[in-house]
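PT: before anyone asks, these are the final sequences, not the draft ones from last week. 337 residues across everything. Please model them as a single complex and drop the result in this thread when it's through.
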Amino acid sequence: MIGVGKIKQYTNVLDKPLTKGKQEVSLSAFAFLFSELVQYNQTQVDNIGELERRLEDAGYAVGARVLELLCHRDKGNRRETRLLGILSFVHSTVWKVLFGKVADSLEKGTEHEDEYMISEKELLVNRFISIPKDMGTFNCGAFVAGIVRGVLDGAGFPAVVTAHFVPVEGQQRPRTTILIKFAEEVLHREARLG
Amino acid sequence: MIVCVAVVGHQNNPLYIQSFTEADDALKLHHIVHCSLDVVDERVNNPKKSGPLLNETFLGLLYPIENFKVYGYLTNTKVKFILVTTDLDVKDADVRNFFRRFHAAYVDAVSNPFHVPGKKITSRTFAERVSTIVKSFGLTSAV
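LR: through. Structure below.
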């Protein structure tokens, strides 16, 4: 995401191809904007749960729009109806557009049938953020969790998405995991489709 | 001659309806668009084996009524685009091209952070782009 892309000038705006999506945004500009977003929300709320919910709502709006844009730009004429299809779409295409690389890993939960996890060594949004001790388990990755929830909701897979820190031995900073828990109806539909 | 284009949300709520004739039959056009929603649902839920694939976006000619033809297009987020036209010979490629540009205009309108998803599209830019696309549809298909 570092660097500034060159923009070719088109005379007619209808000729501008929607597929030219390689324009980059500077990382520091985004980091400043995100830190302001977090600070602004911090002044408006009283507790941590509310702060997390607000960040998630902000991410939800982004996710809905990203889904529309990507489906038109990259997906051609296909509509995702299968669970694995939409998960791999989020894991590779969405991550690539937002963060410039695919997510580190996609895993299926072992305890419950409806849980999936996308993990990342370090989320881009958390790169310049350190959480003070008295905020407990708060994770600014709630913004990214909101984006994932927006994408899944728009595609017809209602889910509850949360972000967690998972400590890894041998590394100072813990790994971040996005936990996706699908709603009942999604599993029923998936079972019906076979 | 394109008579009307419509964007319908995923709960079958109308997001944008625009007619391009001078006649005052907006109610009839609304009715036609509404009926076509049933056809879209039927196509999506019972896919014909020889018809389009289960997850294809362009639905093709939905049904003819009076002297109109109704074409449908379904996006990934269950948002439907309906096109009502009076042309007798309409090439498939033209309609697909039209829907592709219409989808691009729709994506730009939805990317607006002030647009609430689920509410009507009030952007003037979107309306202008749609009328441009509609005008150029008539030109390219004229032989």
